Amino acid sequence: MMKLCLCGLGRAGVQIAKYLLARKDVKLVSACSSSNSKKMGKDLGEILDCRDTGVIVQSPASIQSEQRNTIPDVVIDFSTPTAALENAEIFSKMKINIVMGTTGFTENEEEKLSVLVQKHNNGLIYAPNITRGVNVMMFLTELASRLLENYDVEIVEMHHKYKMDKPSGTAQKISQVLNKHQLRNKDISISSVRAGGIIGFHKVIMAGENDKIEISHESFSRKAFAEGALQAAEFIYHKRGIYKMRDMFNFEEVLADYISEKQVTSGV
């Protein structure tokens, strides 16, 4: 049975913890928070407003001294960029694989993550866009951009008022995908909304002179994050190296099949 550790007990982290505790096929053996958090030292059940779980919230550094049966196989990190980098260094040294769901990294910070994994030869899946649906939306956007390369493109993303990074990491990834194929859009505009309790919404608008299409994804529940996080943990469990969510979905293979079929139908 795969043993898991959860770092970060914010909105997404709390939902992921509830989801994992309810599962019978995996075991949540530890939970971590920042050293100055009021959650430190508490049973996870107290934070989740449920029964005691036997999982005491601690710092990532303290896990190194834990008994072997409570050391995780995979860490799921939904903390902050600064904390996540510190966590990654600790867990990489311990050869523990990581699902990096934290968003807001700079390019330099992403490079530091890569160096850590290469140095210690553990596994990491970089998953700032953790839900399965939003990854499929990005794939569909890539396909559409190949076919509608001269259309004008705009991105709209909406999240709750407490989300710090703006635009979202997912919106930035969508923009990168589009910029590979769009000829008329050097800098694709991203409109960001931070309001109320919106969980997550992304929309791509592609407009030509006479028509337009929209591709969108909306999360109704943070349980979508939990499902994606567990699937990513299962993917990275026994792997080494750095992966992205598109690797988990075999998008490259699907794209290759699409291109191959297109060549056949066009007589290439």
Give a written overview of the molecule.
The protein is 39% helix and 23% strand. With 268 residues, it is of the alpha/beta class. The strands form 2 sheets. It has a 7-stranded parallel beta sheet with strand order 3-2-1-4-5-6-11, sandwiched between helices. The chain has a 4-stranded mixed beta sheet with strand order 8-7-9-10, covered by helices on one side. α1 (11-22) crosses α7 (223-236), α3 (81-93) packs parallel to α4 and α5 runs parallel beside α6 (169-179). The longest helix is centred in the middle third of the chain and has 16 residues, at 132-147. The N and C termini lie far apart (49 Å). The mean pLDDT is 89.
Shape: globular
CATH superfamily of the largest domain: NAD(P)-binding Rossmann-like Domain
Helix fraction? 25-40%
Q: Write down the overall mean pLDDT.
A: 89
From N to C, what is the helix and strand string? EHEHEEHEHEHEHEEEHEHH
Rg for CA atoms: 20 Å
The description of the largest β-sheet is: 7 strands, parallel
Known CATH architecture of the largest domain: 3-Layer(aba) Sandwich
Low-confidence stretches: none
* Class by alpha and beta content: alpha/beta
Strand order of the largest sheet: 3-2-1-4-5-6-11
CATH fold-level label of the largest domain: Rossmann fold
Number of helices: 9
The number of domains is 2
Strand content: 15-25%
